[in-house]
């Protein structure tokens, strides 16, 4: 039996649920964030992704809007009804981020940032833990143990590509990690084909392949105008291509014994302005947890 | 438009066709070969794979049955109606192997064995070219150029995993190579999840993922009794698991705009003993070739 | 002109100076630490290494003695006259570690822990920045920029091996990173052959090779009784082998235009009990800095 | 005791001998070859390298002069007294190449070209076997076994870089392979820093590091006019830089217990026109072989 848990009353992760977390790489402005959020909500995404604190290779690159970005994400979540997943990089920011987000992301560069892992393990929101670019699968599981050991059992693992030698793609998306992880853990497993390939042309096929390979969800970058993105624009899908991908995933889901919950139907809000508010980022309910802390 | 070509009158590769090449890693004995061949034919494989000349890391390992293995493959092909794909390692053996096989395989270790590439380019049978474990996609395409330049335009490219750092799998199966190759070449692309993962537990999910990612076919190891295999037994599917996989592929094919030809239906020979004989390994017809020499 | 800076009055890093930082992987007990510290001081090491906060793959492994370990390191430094380099993992610990250490180490897992990089950039002690196992050289230099940008120009870069596919060694020690870095930066470059190979048998040859390749120093694990080490014992040199290595390095240094300062001679304290005290971990002097903040 | 063997009466490989094989990547013309040959002989190289049959990634690239190139190499060998090492790619060419060369090279792309390995194992000239770019050290040793098993015990192993993720260098030169190989085999080990780094700026430091790490020799590309080279010009040393490197190696050799034989002194032919002729490429003598066939 695979682990499952919930965010709010109607978002389930794991088991036969398939979650699609979509949105821009970084929160850049209210207009761009809302445009992306509305679009992904309309197409049936189950969570909104977006970075307020951005880990960037160079200190000269755009570092994210910080607390202001968190506030915008909260507004976008309220607007669309989609819970937010967003990255936290600093153990001192965990409380702040946990207030706004439905799920905390630990990025690939921080997979072995043990003080951060412990800190996210001490708060109740679910944690998305991304595999490091040079991390073995066992190292990923040991990193998850740091969170689990603090009492937070709601950890989602994310394959996002490992370092390879071929510049054809940014990383090598290791889809075999999905069945390997399914042998070794009950934790839900999602895939990030956006970072894994670094190229929007390759994202839809890898997203569909991940579902068929047994993933429990996807993390996908969508930008209203990718050519204007301050970060990673070349890997962001346009809203139209994302909508096509969602249709494809919906068609494949029954063959994969997966249920692709369409939150826009739940809320009767196909225009992205949801009726359900406030509890979108509510702490996870405990009733359907199956992972012991 | 993707390139297509045929082997015999009814086996098409490329376009909307999906080819499944299945069989044992190595030809070990008539009994084991026929058992595997009958099983994969019954489940709907389109070609029979099997090694007569085996490239083995150590000279102490089983090196294949050589010419005797080719003869057994010809018998198995005759018996099942499935054309054979088998590896050739030595440019001096190309003529011999081309007599028995419907398609010649150049293995991953020989992707840049240029005399061999030229030699298989000078004979008319289609060639399956496997990506080297440290080869970039551009290097694979350049290797294919060595064959194409000699006048043989019927080249199928095969992704079979690249070297990685995680011992969880034998290689890292680079499924993103599929959409990358589709951007760069018209040649058909197949995937070998058996070598790509090295573990039978991971083969079905990676095989299905490859189809969904846009592959034109699969190369899969099936052994009647994997625990007895002289080579790579841990990555061979049993006939029962292979049959399940074929059912899954048949269900997925329509969603991928692929046509999974069931040769057993064509021949009314679900028990693996085909009615069509003799021309199973016939040289490819030219009428539907679209690749210019 | 290469950058140089000092720790205390007589320890110089960069330029024609060659620094050897040696000691145990982790501080385990007063006895073992002092035994190692005395041994490396006697053989001519220029700094004492030792971990109080240990980043370990699994939370079940020994995590270091923490603040108690820092105290023991300070005692060992006082005893031997060797300044201490020790790792800091948590931005909240930077002040604490900076009080005890002559140099702060940012480990390979934290190379892109940007809050930590900023924090060590805001305090005056020199920083040893280790290359991540999947980091390109340019990514290492960008990570150093995070420290430099905060005003701390005393950064030492450390090559310690990148992920590779061959289990013969723990990592692939990329010695070509030395000449590559010399083309791209003035910052001093040291090499950690202990982590880079993971095997004490290979450390001496790689240490000598690093010096000849142009490194400004070494980081080497030495343990009084490697078979008892709680962490990484298989890669620790015994005091006797370390002494032989130091003799080899002394012989090679003149051919590499390097000056291998023997601190034991400076202090007339070949038994490891130094006369100079108190200022061993003094903040770096500024008079010979050549790196602009 | 390390294995040693001889080429002609005065060139020894292995043991305390250090061999430097230098020359152009490819034989391009009589003038350029002789200029390079004279230069490397004058600086004290012990063998002349140069490719007549060139394995090139693309069939459109210069493929070498073939038999004509072998003839030019024989002339250059006669002229300088330096035995020639040159690559053979096709098992059908082994006899031809063995006539002209003092040592046959099996290139990295052919490390697991087993028919070729067997063929070079059946002739008496020594064989230089280069490690494949994705080959583990054990795979290299197994490949050597294919040669040894045919009765040719004079195999020299060559580390030339493995695939890595950092475009800063063409490959990752794995110098730790030297001590690892010394643990596992008696066969002599040489290093090719030219292909290993792909950049002439990094070759001298890596060459010196290889000697200090325990290598038995080097394979170095030297071109009279690198900017005109038809292949790999960016990694070729100029004659002047090669001369400086030889001086450095001579200085380091005594510290490495190595004897860097200067063949130009032996022959009183500092201008590169040797007195000794005819036997430069003579088959290896057997009296000092210590490797059992």
Secondary-structure topology with pairs:
The structure is a homotetramer of 293-residue chains.
Chain A: E1 4-7, E2 11-14, E3 19-23, H1 30-43, E4 47-49, H2 67-80, E5 84-87, H3 94-100, E6 103-106, H4 114-121, E7 127-130, H5 137-148, E8 155-159, H6 177-184, E9 189-191, H7 193-197, H8 203-212, E10 217-221, H9 239-252, H10 263-267
Helix pairs in contact in A: 1-2, 1-9, 4-5, 8-9
Task: Write a structural description.
Four copies of one chain form a homotetramer. Chain A is of the alpha/beta class and 293 residues long. In chain A, 33% of the residues lie in helices and 14% in strands. Chain A has ten helices and ten strands. In chain A, the strands form two sheets. Chain A has an eight-stranded parallel β-barrel with strand order 3-4-5-6-7-8-9-10, surrounded by seven helices. Chain A has a two-stranded antiparallel ribbon with strand order 1-2. The longest helix of chain A is centred in the first third of the chain and has 14 residues. The C terminus of chain A is likely disordered. Chains B and D meet through helix 4 and helix 5 of B and helix 4 and helix 5 of D.
Chain oligomer state: homotetramer
Low-confidence region ranges of chain A: 268-293
Shape of chain A: globular
Run of helices and strands of chain A: EEEHEHEHEHEHEHEHHEHH
Q: Give the rounded overall mean pLDDT of chain A.
A: 89
β-strand amount of chain A: 5-15%
Count of extended strands of chain A: 10
Identify the most extensive interface between protein chains: A-B, 38 and 38 residues
Structural class, judged by helices and strands of chain A? alpha/beta
Based on CA atoms alone, the radius of gyration of chain A comes out at: 17 Å
The span between the termini of chain A is 17 Å
Largest sheet of chain A: 8 strands, parallel, barrel
The level of helicity of chain A is 25-40%
Q: How many H/I helical runs of chain A?
A: 10
**Strand order in the sheet with the most strands of chain A:** 3-4-5-6-7-8-9-10
């Amino acid at each position: 039996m695979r682990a499952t848990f919930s965010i709010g009353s109607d978002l389930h992760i794991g088991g036969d649920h398939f979650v699609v977390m979509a949105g821009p790489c970084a929160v850049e402005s209210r207009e761009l964030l809302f445009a992306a959020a509305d679009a992904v909500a309309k197409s049936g995404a189950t969570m909104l992704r977006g970075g307020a604190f951005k880990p960037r290779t160079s200190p000269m690159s755009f570092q994210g809007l910080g607390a202001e970005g968190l506030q915008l994400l909260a507004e976008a979540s309220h607007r669309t009804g989609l819970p937010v997943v967003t990255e936290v990089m600093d153990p001192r920011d965990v409380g702040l981020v946990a207030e706004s987000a439905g799920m905390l992301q630990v990025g690939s560069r921080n997979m072995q940032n043990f003080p951060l892992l412990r800190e996210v393990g001490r708060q109740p929101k679910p944690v998305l833990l991304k595999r490091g670019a040079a991390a073995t699968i066992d190292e990923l599981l040991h990193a998850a143990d740091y969170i689990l050991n603090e009492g937070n059992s709601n950890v989602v693992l994310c394959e996002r590509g490992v370092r390879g030698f071929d510049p054809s793609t940014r990383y090598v998306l290791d889809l075999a990690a999905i069945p390997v992880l399914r042998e070794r853990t009950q934790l839900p497993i999602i895939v990030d084909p956006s970072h894994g390939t670094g190229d929007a042309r390759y994202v839809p096929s890898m997203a569909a392949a991940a579902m068929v390979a047994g993933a429990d969800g996807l993390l996908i970058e969508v930008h209203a105008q990718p050519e204007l993105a301050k970060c990673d624009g070349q890997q962001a899908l346009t809203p139209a291509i994302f909508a096509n991908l969602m249709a494809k995933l919906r068609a494949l889901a029954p063959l994969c014994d997966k249920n692709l919950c369409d939150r826009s139907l739940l809320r009767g809000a196909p225009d992205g302005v949801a009726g359900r508010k406030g509890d979108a980022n509510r702490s996870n309910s405990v009733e359907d947890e199956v992972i012991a802390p």
